[in-house]
Amino acid sequence: MEVINKFREDHRIVRDGLIELAGALESKDLEKASEVLGKLNKLLGPHFRFEEEALYPTLRVFLGEYIDQLLNEHDEAIKAAKEVADLISGGAISDEDAKIAAGKTRALLVHVSNCDGLAILAERLDEKEIEELWSKFRNLREEGVPLLEWAEKIRVRT
Question: Which of 24, 71, 92, 119 has the most crowded CB, counting CB atoms within 10 A?
Answer without folding.
Answer: 24
